[in-house]
Amino acid sequence: MDLKTQELINTGKMLPLMEEFYTIQGEGAHTGTAAYFIRIGGCDVGCHWCDVKESWDANLHPPTHTDLIVENAKKYAETVVITGGEPLMWSLDYITAQLQLAGIKTHIETSGAYSFSGKWDWFCLSPKKTKLPIEECYREADELKMIIHNNNDFKFAEEQAAKVGKNCQLFLQPEWSKKEKMTPLIIDYVMENPKWRISLQTHKYLNIP
């Protein structure tokens, strides 16, 4: 990679774009709403149940000029969701500034494991045991989305909920491959602990991206 490209990446003016698409938000607080998704490559958090492992290696996804990504988003959506991979591996100050200048709301879905950057209308934090969030990400979280893969994850969810602000919305979401086993347990848990809400991957049930 040449020095000019590396400098553009370092400043967030180029990003390793994996894919971008207009769809219906399938999870969490904004389920059922239209949004333009920008998936950025690169992640070393290493969730064994990740359903987009092809996003992990940033080298597989060509650096793309951020201005072009913004122009594409402006054709479709009032809301953009930046996801990954792990999007906070990259500087997101530039892309969020440009999106907001265009009147587009900026949302992120992140593990919170890397330095905070960007300006966000909605910050969805989904902590992982393998690489915990930094403190600033707990403070910024509007939504805490905990993936429930086994019984121990309920304890982890409570530990993470204790670190976010009082206005943060709390969600438990069954890991897709364990949904038949874990969904009934999540239902019972939410009924006993009503501060939590259930999130489902409704886009998979609807067979949309």
UniProtKB/TrEMBL annotation:
The keyword Ubl conjugation does not apply. Its cofactor is [4Fe-4S] cluster; Mg(2+); S-adenosyl-L-methionine. Pathway: Purine metabolism; 7-cyano-7-deazaguanine biosynthesis. It comes from the Bacteria. Binds 1 [4Fe-4S] cluster. The cluster is coordinated with 3 cysteines and an exchangeable S-adenosyl-L-methionine. Binds 1 S-adenosyl-L-methionine per subunit. It catalyses: 6-carboxy-5,6,7,8-tetrahydropterin + H(+) = 7-carboxy-7-carbaguanine + NH4(+). Substrate binds at residues 24-26, 39, 83, 209. S-adenosyl-L-methionine binds at residues 49-51, 85, 126-128. [4Fe-4S] cluster binds at residues 43, 47, 50. It is an enzyme of class 4 (lyase). Keywords: 4Fe-4S, Iron, Iron-sulfur, Lyase, Magnesium, Metal-binding, Queuosine biosynthesis, S-adenosyl-L-methionine. Residues 30-209 form the Radical SAM core domain. Catalyzes the complex heterocyclic radical-mediated conversion of 6-carboxy-5,6,7,8-tetrahydropterin (CPH4) to 7-carboxy-7-deazaguanine (CDG), a step common to the biosynthetic pathways of all 7-deazapurine-containing compounds. Homodimer. Belongs to the radical SAM superfamily. 7-carboxy-7-deazaguanine synthase family. This is 7-carboxy-7-deazaguanine synthase. It comes from Tenacibaculum geojense.
